[in-house]
Design goal:
With 246 residues, this protein is an alpha+beta fold. Helix content is 23%, strand content 26%. It contains six helices and 13 strands. Strands 5, 6, 7, 8, 9, 10, 11, 12 and 13 form a nine-stranded mixed β-sheet that branches. It has a four-stranded antiparallel β-sheet with strand order 2-1-3-4. A hairpin with a 2-residue loop joins strand 11 and strand 12. The chain binds uracil.
Length: 246
């Protein structure tokens, strides 16, 4: 990649700021000053700015506890986005894996690994996402059956079977955990609405083996552990081995 891109990706400045640094001779490539912004470099070259070595970290993975009130987008002109909560301004290419509605809370993976994101979101991979749901109404066995076997949403699209666990049910409110294996627009809310129940609170608890770290406070994030990442990569690979992505 170009030297200016390498430095901008690593947060040494904006593309024009790093071009300036390069022009002024502050940047070395393998200990030799380089004034060419378009010089081709690789991750194995040693790049330094004012003598400080800047290593290239190619992939990053963060677990964010998304609070309500922020958009699952990379940037927005008017509203706060989940990326505004990630203050490692190191990379410009981070994005959220899938979308949670503005009023939904919980687990959101932020990365720049497009392949992993694609695998995790592909319905063919059948990766379960578990949500805690509070409903306005007391859920019945019939409603659970309909949701578990797959139902037609208001636009005629049929959902894949889901699984449900009722946690609480009283005084007109139900609390349930639902696991779904796809990610249609507003899917959980629309599924419950199609059986006559309104979602009044929604929180994502997990995605595959990745479980929301409840020691995080809303709006906080942390780097995935090596094990979390290895397990995530493993389940996306396994689905291929099992033939569900062929
Ligand atoms: N389903 C929804 O309806 N909303 C979300 O944010 C996530 C899943």
């Amino acid at each position: 990649m170009r030297l200016d891109k390498y430095l901008a990706d690593m947060g040494a400045g904006t593309r024009s700021e790093v071009k300036n640094l390069i022009k002024k001779g502050f940047v070395t490539v393998n200990e030799t000053p380089c004034k060419n912004a378009d010089q081709k470099v690789t991750e194995s070259d040693q790049i330094a700015v004012r003598g400080m070595i800047i290593s290239y970290i190619s992939k990053e993975y963060y677990m964010l506890y998304k609070p309500a009130g922020v958009l699952s987008a990379t940037r927005d002109k008017y509203e706060k986005t989940v990326l505004d909560l990630i203050n490692t301004k190191k990379r410009k290419d981070l994005f959220p894996v899938g979308r949670l509605d503005k009023d939904t809370e919980g687990l959101l993976l932020i990365t720049n690994d497009g392949d992993l994101a694609h695998s995790l979101l592909s319905p063919r991979k059948h990766i379960g996402k578990v949500y805690f749901v509070r409903l306005n109404g007391e859920i019945t066995k019939e409603q659970i059956y309909l949701l578990e076997t797959g139902i037609k949403l208001e636009d005629g699209v049929r959902t894949q079977p889901a699984s449900l666990k009722v946690l609480n049910k009283n005084e007109g409110i139900s609390e349930v955990e639902i696991t779904i294996y796809e990610g249609k627009f507003h899917q959980v809310k629309r599924m419950f609405l199609s059986v006559g129940l309104e979602v009044i609170y929604l929180k994502r608890l997990s995605m595959g083996n990745l479980v929301l770290d409840e020691t995080l406070r809303k709006g906080e994030y942390r780097v995935l552990t090596e094990k979390e990442l290895a397990d995530l990569k493993e389940i996306t690979k396994e689905r291929i081995k099992n033939g569900s992505d062929i």
